[in-house]
Amino acid sequence: MSFALVTWNTQSCCGLDGKVDVARIVEHARALADFDVLCLQEIAIGYPELPGSPSHDQPALLRSMLPGFEIFFGVAVDELGRHGQRQRFGNLIAARCVATQVEHHALPYPADGGVRSMPRMCSVATVRAAIGGTTRVLRVMTTHLEYYSPRQRMAQARAVRALHAQACAHAAQPPRPDETGSPFQTKLHTRSAILCGDFNFVASGAEYALLLQPPDDASTNTALHDAWPLVHGKAPQPPTFQVFDRSDGPEPLVCDFVFVSADLAPFVRRVAVDSKTQASDHQPVVIEFD
User: Fold this and answer.
1) Per residue, what are the HEC states of 200-255?
2) How far apart are CA 143 and CA 139, in angstroms?
3) pTM of the predicted model, to two decimals?
4) Which of 39, 84, 123, 267 is the most buried if burial means most Cβ atoms within 10 Å?
5) For residues 126, 127, 132 and 133, what is the CA-based torsion angle, rounded to 10 degrees?
6) What DSSP designation does 169 have?
């Protein structure tokens, strides 16, 4: 048994050729792995003024292109455009495995005057996954943190860490069982987690160090590990941003990561970056487990 996940900031499915092509994103992700979960950031509905004019309902297109997958779209921005059209922008999780619970968490958005920014969020799908020779309950968390505002990005990193710690605490101290079928009905809580996405920080940044800090309460076992060195040791992760397009900066950067909980770390078999595709301004990352 095995489990594979691909994470990718799609830039609203706009490639460096200026064309918006949802099918191309799916095709390249499938070339990376026979994924069980696909986590996409920067998915859009109704933004004709973004590069490539991605005015279509991209979650609906992905649903049609991924038969057998459940689609969960976490909207970070929901607003009226300049011409009165409704516009939505956020993260998407496509899961082939059974999802028992889905949550979409708005992340902190502290004021930072004069700095370009937008609201951000974290989507969480609790799924059953075959890892380590058994079927586990696993939280898949995907997010896209603020790019321009360091203040907001740090607040968001703290919030993501707190969400993981809170979920681990529920697993350690579960609520009273409830079989009424109401919203209070028993949930599946688990310490096992994959946290992935475009974090807009680098490995030398304070936000990265924060996510990897030992847990405040060791009894909840909330430790997270960067999956890349688990497989590759000290070999550097290939850049995932500004590889081909340097309009946002002079040097390629690693800002797309996959973090795993301590209990999953021994089962990470493969972590890879597709350094060739130009279907987005970011490069996708794949992780596979035994």
Assistant:
1) CCCCCCHHHHHHHCCCCCHHHCCCEEEHHHHHHCCCCCCCCECCCCCCCCCCCECC
2) 13
3) 0.96
4) 39
5) 150
6) H
Residue with tokens 């993501």: 160
Q: What's the CA gap between 121 and 160, in Å, rounded?
A: 9
User: From CA 164, how far away is CA 211, in angstroms rounded?
Assistant: 10
For 32-68, what is each residue's pLDDT tens digit? 999 999 999 999 999 888 888 887 899 999 999 999 9
Give the span between the Cα atoms of 250 and 48, in whole angstroms: 28
Question: Reading across the β-sheet that carries 256-261, which strands appear in turn?
Answer: 99-106, 121-131, 134-144, 193-198, 256-261, 224-226
Which amino acid belongs to residue 242? Q
Helix axes 22-32, 58-65, angle to 10 degrees: 50
Q: Which residue shows structure tokens 């026979």?
A: 34
CATH topology of domain 3-289: Deoxyribonuclease I; Chain A (3.60.10)
Cα–Cα nearest to 2, from 36, 29, 30, 28: 36
